[in-house]
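re: that chain from earlier
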Amino acid sequence: MSNLKSLLKNIATESPSSENELEVYADSIRQGLDLAAKELGIDISMLDYEVAQRGNSGLFGFGRVPYKLYVRALSEQEAFADLNDLDQKLSKNISDELSREFTDPNAPGTFKVRVTKSGIWFTVKPPKGKGRKVSIADVAQKMDHLQIKDFNQDLVKKSIAAQSGKPVRIGEWVPNIELDGTMYIEISDDEMYAMAHFEPPRFSGRHMELDDVLHSLKNAGVVVGIDEEAINKYLDEMNYSSPLVAAAGVKPKNGTDAYVEYKVRVEKEISFDNDDDSVDFKDLNLIENVVVGQLLAVKRPATNGVEGRTVKNNIIPVRPGKDIAIKHGEGTILSDDGMELTAERNGQVILKGDKICVDEVLLVQGDVNNVTGNIVMMGSVVITGNVLDEFSVKASGNVEVRGSVQKAVIEAEGDIVIRQGINGRDEGRIETTSGSIYAKFVNRANLIAEKNVVVTEELLQSRVDAGGTVFCNGRRAQIVGGVIRAGDEVNAKQIGSDSYTKTFIYVGMNPKVLQQMNDLSASLDSTAEELEKLELDIKTLTSRKKRSRLSEEQEEKLQLLTDRQAKLTKRHDDIVGEREELEQYLDMLEHKGIVCAEKQLYPGVEIIIKNERLPVQDPYSNVSISMKDKSWVFGNYIKPDSVDTMTSSSRRRR
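^ sequence. v structure.
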């Protein structure tokens, strides 16, 4: 005898009631059996019953008719006959659970008998691995427990042999309301769930079907969220140990609040992108630059949300999302509908409080160093400290450095002002594509300006290109060493030194044209050198080919060299043509340009105006040197016309 049978036997034996039959009125069969079991003091499984009168719930409480049951206590023998089936069912459920959890590779075959209105259905599933197959004896015992006598034994045998897992109809259903399974619907307090509770059939009684469940749900007022797939699956498993969630309401979805989606970076973060989690402190990218018309932010509107529905189709209200506005400041334009924000000007995007602004001037407090990284700005930049070695500042506007610039790079489209000077150590480079450069002193640096270069003190051992004037005329102003090239004029208090330092002064031609000429000459030299080498290699292979047959690899190499020679010859001829055109253009230019030294011009200085050179052999003072009709003209020092303008501009920019 199983543990379950033993337990129920003890309960039956210990029952103190001597009464064994009751007449019970209740709203359902289950309720009646619960009342009888409580009255008799025994377990519900020890009861047998007969429905004397079918109940009816009526309409809105009217016309209600209760169930009338005759309930009696079963004898131990009667009870255990039914418990054999119950024990097997529970054991099977436990076995199924264990098999699902642990997946026994040698699980035995299983079978199922399901009684419905359409008939008696028999299903056999094959075993796994070396598991035991379903036997006829197993099925016979089951049929005996279910008290099913009239069924097609041949179909049962064929199903056992086929083990297809598909249900086969083996007999007719014999109605017996006393044995059929029952159910009732329980709706949660919030009406979000409808639970179906099932009372399994007894013996050959009929199992509940989908239509039964749908009918019960309808009677309970459930119309939303009915899960027919889950219901069918539950009924097919015939495991009634837990209730079924037959329907679920639709949960409401609250509206989402409106939010601003930034199309540019407004939060400054340092990212660790390298494999070793290190940071390149020169390229921190802390500045977010934008151009006119660039989209800065978009408002994503609030949503109203989706109303929920209970299983009884009652509406569950939702909270709509809250609206917000894009807060904007200077340098931005908000669209008429308030949905888009664009840049009104070039500059840096910054947040002032919670307002988005585009600032044309970036103020860097302190030095440009590992803290700031390299600076790239679509606007102007003001640096209150210094620009340290190996860092760079690039701006589409002006750049002002209130300290000094070391071995660094500064590029701008506007003016560049260095208050304390430049110490470039031969690698520092300052370049403006459309403005002027102003500095207190310059030492071993490279300066390139579209307009003027103005230095108030020393300009030492540097390379300077200015489209207009190079002016150096402070109290200690002097140009010593290096190469100075100006389109119009070089004007200084002192040029050269008493130690005769080599200093080259080019005037009268735009440095860009001179640089272009130098680049063409360098390209011509390198092309001629490569052509000479190619000609030698081709000559060697051609001579070898005349003496003997070349290998396939050598033939291929000869062809490649010949093709390269043809292309390079064309490139050489093009460069020669470009240089000749440029030389013709230079010949057409006047010999303009002037070099002025207010106090002293020392030997060691070489002045070049156009293609004419003048090595200074003797010291001069208060002198100006120019050229007319290919002759050198010496005169008194001439103050530049724009000196007042440049001086005041330099002071104003400080």
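Residues 104-171 form one domain.
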